[in-house]
Design a protein that fits this description.
Layout: H1 2-8, H2 10-22, H3 31-42, H4 45-51, H5 58-65, H6 78-86, E1 90-94, H7 99-109, E2 117-119, H8 121-124, E3 131-136, E4 142-147, H9 163-173, E5 180-184, H10 187-195, E6 199-203, E7 214-216, H11 222-225, E8 232-234, E9 237-239, E10 248-251
Parallel strand pairs: 1-2, 1-10, 5-6, 5-10, 6-7
Antiparallel strand pairs: 3-4, 8-9
Length: about 250
C-alpha cells in the first residue's frame, strides 16, 4: 500500500506531521527528521513512535492519518484487474496499512474481489489475543477469518520490513514460501522477504535490487516479464502452471 500513500503525496505527510504536532505535542522543528528516521529504523513512523514510548490509540491514529487521504484520486485499474483475475494461483495482500485503508484502496482501484484475503495492520497487531486475515465471501464482501494462537504478543508493532513480520504472515496465510512469489515496490521489503524464504519481485525498478529474483518496471508488465506464472512449455503445448511450482502470489 506504499503506492497508495504516494498517491496521497504531500497530503499524507501533512496529516502525519499534523498528528505528531497536535496529538503527541512533538516540537515542529523535530517532526520531519523524526518521521524519516523512525520510518527507516522501525519500518513505519507509527511503529517508531511506539518504541519511543508515545502512547496513542492505533485506530485513532489510522483514522486521522489515513482516513482523510484523497482516495478520490485513485481510479479503477482494469488492466491490473484482468491480470490478477487471470492468474491461477492464490492471491493475498500483505500490507502495513490498516483494514479501512486497505479496503478503501482496493475498492477505488476496482480490485476488491481479486484476492483471497488481506493481511493488514490489525492482523499482526490485534487489539486482543487473536489473529485474523480478511477473506472474501461468495459475494466478495471481506469478512474476518479468525485463528487463535498466532497473535502478536510483542509490545512493539510488528510490520514490514521485519523478517519476523514476514514469517508471521507466511504462517497466517498458510503458504509454502518456496512456492510463493512476493511482489513489492520497497527495496527493503523485498530483501526481508527473500530472507524469509520467498521468491521475490521488485516492482517499479528496471534492474534487480538486493534480494530480488526479478524486476518489473511496472506491475502491468508482469505477463511479459513472468509468463511462467500462467504457462509452461511442453513440446508445442502451453499449459497453466500447476503446483508444486507456484501456488501463491503475495502482493504488497
Amino acid at each position: 500500500m506504499d503506492t497508495a500513500h504516494r498517491t496521497g503525496g504531500v497530503k499524507y505527510e501533512c496529516l502525519l506531521f499534523e498528528y505528531m504536532l497536535e496529538h503527541l505535542h512533538i516540537e515542529e522543528s523535530e517532526v520531519p527528521k523524526m518521521c524519516l528516521d523512525l520510518y527507516r529504523e522501525y519500518g513505519t513512523t507509527m511503529a517508531g513512535l511506539k518504541v519511543l514510548g508515545y502512547e496513542f490509540d492505533n485506530d485513532e491514529f489510522h483514522a486521522y492519518v489515513h482516513g482523510r487521504l484523497p482516495y478520490e484520486k485513485l481510479k479503477p485499474d482494469p488492466v491490473l484487474r484482468n491480470l490478477l483475475l487471470s492468474m491461477p494461483q492464490r492471491k493475498i495482500i500483505f500490507t502495513n496499512a490498516d483494514h479501512g485503508h486497505a479496503v478503501q484502496v482496493l475498492n477505488r482501484l476496482g480490485l476488491e474481489d481479486c484476492f483471497e484475503g488481506i493481511i493488514y495492520f490489525e492482523t499482526l497487531n490485534p487489539p486482543k489475543q487473536i489473529n485474523h486475515m480478511d477473506v472474501p465471501d461468495d459475494n466478495h464482501v471481506l469478512t474476518d477469518l479468525t485463528e487463535c494462537g498466532c497473535f502478536n504478543s510483542h509490545p512493539q508493532i510488528l510490520c514490514k520490513p521485519s523478517v519476523e513480520a514476514f514469517e508471521a504472515a507466511i504462517r497466517i496465510a498458510d503458504v509454502d514460501p518456496k512456492k510463493t512469489i512476493f511482489f513489492d515496490d520497497s527495496v527493503r521489503n523485498v530483501a526481508s522477504a527473500k530472507i524469509a524464504g520467498l521468491h521475490t519481485v521488485i516492482v517499479g525498478h528496471s534492474d534487480l535490487v538486493p534480494g530480488a529474483d526479478h524486476a518489473l518496471s511496472s506491475i502491468h508488465n508482469i505477463k511479459e516479464a513472468l509468463p511462467e506464472i500462467w504457462e509452461i512449455e511442453e513440446g508445442n503445448q502451453q499449459q497453466k502452471i500447476q503446483a508444486p511450482r507456484v501456488e501463491t502470489m503475495v502482493l504488497a
